[in-house]
């Protein structure tokens, strides 16, 4: 109840920021002394585009991984109208496709850029059951599996960048408070892959729970390696974006109108991502869950270490198998290493 009141009133938390804070406000004190590079998926609209705009405004080189390159070009033009000297690099990626992720990583690594910040932002919601080209339920494939593979393939670059620059790398998984709706009995890896008894909202919630579990287990492994890279999950708030509009047909227009008054603006929605990406206060913080720019509590299932390890191992095994089947160049060698 207290959290609800704090959210509605926009009361600041320990960080000094709250639900009403914008991405520009939370990064206002940030003065980049180094040339940081951030990679953001799904930054052609919504909070991803706002995150890209604000980071670019703060002097960060931004790499946008986009499925729709026409939209990406328009976003770059819009950002550079405001920040003429901003460096925005566009690369094509379809996070539901293992082959596309492999091509993207090859193209990015060929640029020989540093990688300080990885923001796993892209997400889809599908009311109807759909499948990726690998015959995996589309929501799970895009929101979770694709980001798992992307992070794994770029992790060594992040660690190398951190070692060379002395700047801690940061990975941010975009999750959602809706993760708490998932019951343990409904979180079955095989069923999520196949879309058994499919429900669009449940599938979306499951993928967002998986993103928190991924952050938890990866944080543990990074700590064991003494790697100077952190990973955290965040809930951006309920923002009026394309995903929210996809749900509109499930409720009445009048109810949606009332609910929309409680939604965050896109700039408010991007604030927590930008805060965790750039704030000095989040230096060294890893394996946590943030909402409204403050560390918060996630569900008991999201905090389950055994569940996180099981999901990691199942995912890793699946990707090894799929990559071998697809015989995608030499990429399968990336998975012959131990977990991280």
Automatic annotation (TrEMBL):
Molecular function GO terms recorded: oxidoreductase activity
InterPro entries hit by this protein: NAD(P)-bd_dom_sf, SDR_fam
Q: Which UniProt keywords apply?
A: Oxidoreductase
Query: What is the protein name for this chain?
Result: Short-chain dehydrogenase TIC 32, chloroplastic
Which Pfam family, giving just one, matches this sequence?
adh_short
- Keyword Oxidoreductase on this protein? yes
The organism's lineage? Eukaryota, Viridiplantae, Streptophyta, Embryophyta, Tracheophyta
Instruction: Say which family it is in.
Output: Belongs to the short-chain dehydrogenases/reductases (SDR) family.
Q: Where in the sequence is the signal peptide annotated?
A: none
């Amino acid at each position: 109840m207290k959290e609800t009141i704090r959210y509605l009133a926009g009361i600041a938390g320990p960080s000094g920021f709250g639900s009403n804070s914008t991405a520009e406000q939370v990064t206002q004190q940030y003065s980049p002394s180094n040339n940081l590079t951030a990679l953001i998926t799904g930054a052609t609209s919504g909070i991803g585009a706002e995150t890209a705009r604000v980071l670019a405004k703060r002097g960060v080189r931004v790499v946008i991984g986009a499925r729709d390159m026409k939209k990406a070009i328009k976003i770059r033009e819009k950002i550079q109208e405001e920040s003429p000297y901003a460096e925005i690099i566009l690369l094509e990626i379809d996070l539901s496709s293992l082959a596309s992720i492999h091509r993207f990583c090859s193209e990015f690594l060929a640029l020989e850029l540093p990688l300080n910040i990885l923001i796993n932002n892209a997400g889809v919601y599908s009311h109807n059951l759909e499948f990726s080209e690998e015959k995996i339920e589309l929501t799970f494939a895009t929101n979770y599996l694709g980001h798992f593979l992307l992070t794994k393939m770029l992790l060594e670059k992040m660690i190398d960048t951190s070692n060379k620059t002395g700047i801690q790398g940061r990975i941010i998984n975009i999750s959602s408070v809706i993760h708490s709706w998932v019951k343990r009995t409904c979180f079955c890896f095989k069923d999520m892959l196949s879309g058994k008894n499919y429900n669009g909202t449940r599938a979306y919630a499951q993928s967002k729970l998986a993103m928190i579990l991924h952050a938890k287990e990866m944080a543990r492994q990074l700590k064991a390696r003494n790697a100077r890279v952190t990973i955290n999950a965040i809930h951006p708030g309920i923002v009026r974006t394309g995903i929210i509009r996809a749900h509109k047909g499930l409720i009445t227009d009048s109810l949606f109108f009332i609910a929309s008054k409680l939604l965050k603006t896109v700039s408010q929605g991007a604030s927590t991502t930008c805060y965790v990406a750039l704030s000095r206060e989040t230096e060294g913080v890893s394996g946590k869950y943030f909402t409204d720019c403050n560390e918060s509590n996630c569900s008991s299932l999201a905090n389950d270490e055994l569940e996180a390890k099981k999901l990691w191992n199942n995912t890793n095994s699946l990707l090894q198998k799929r990559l071998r089947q697809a015989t995608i160049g030499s990429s399968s060698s990336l998975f012959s290493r131990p977990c991280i």
